[in-house]
Amino acid sequence: MTQISILGCGWLGLPLAKKLIEKGNSVNGSTTSETKLPVLKDLGIHPFLVILESESISENSIDFLAESEILIIDIPPKLRAVNPDSEKKVFVEKIKTLIPFIEKSTVKKVLFVSSTSVYSDDNDLITEETNPNPDTESGKQLLLAEKILQENPNFETTILRFGGLIGKDRHPVKFLAGKENLENPDAPVNLVHLNDCIGIIEEIIYQSKWNDVFNAAAPFHPTRQEYYTQKAKEQKLILPKFSSEKSNIRKTISSEKVETILNYKFRLENY
Known about the structure:
The protein is of the alpha/beta class. It has helices at residues 13-22, 37-42, 61-65, 90-103, 137-150, 173-176, 194-206, 224-234, 256-261, and strands at 3-7, 26-31, 46-49, 70-73, 109-115, 125-126, 156-162, 164-166, 191-193, 213-216, 252-253. The two termini are 33 Å apart.
């Protein structure tokens, strides 16, 4: 049995915790909502209320990390909290605040859930060897956070960069349905389903693939117009209408490393 702490039991972290417990692991899970604590407990997760800020973290973070060998960091940047007049890197500062507590704990392995937004839209085929050059503020902060964790000698860090997250209750077509003049009709989609997210994380843990970087998006890249039009038809939604203007975005995430090194097979029926 492995003791694992998951910082952020949200859309991904909660079902991930459930799966890891089913496989015989013990899981400490954090939430920022007091009302969610009994939900975690009922699922067999050891619940902790952990509030991570730029300059502070909840005192019980020590107990949250206690006796765990592995820490999974799965918290969004939430950059809407950034003061436009400040250059302060809020998300990066949160990671810096967390690190001393990791160093003092039993944690020796860290899995950081990042995003393929660390790569520029100007790139074509993207592999783990592609030089990250983020276009967005969230991508820039994620990349800085990655480097801070990777460069720390007190624990081994693996970076997992997910494409667009989808699942049974989460799909972009619901927000695009009925909209008009949508941009980038010919840009390829780079999506990863919740089930694959969990499966890939499991393989990293069970195969002990640390000090590494993995990109994860299903090997399925139709254009935005093709994919979302078809999904709207399948879900009987109002069809989205795309601009006739071609885009120069050819960003295609390769998951060959996940498929070869981890020997992972994407469940394409979910897409």
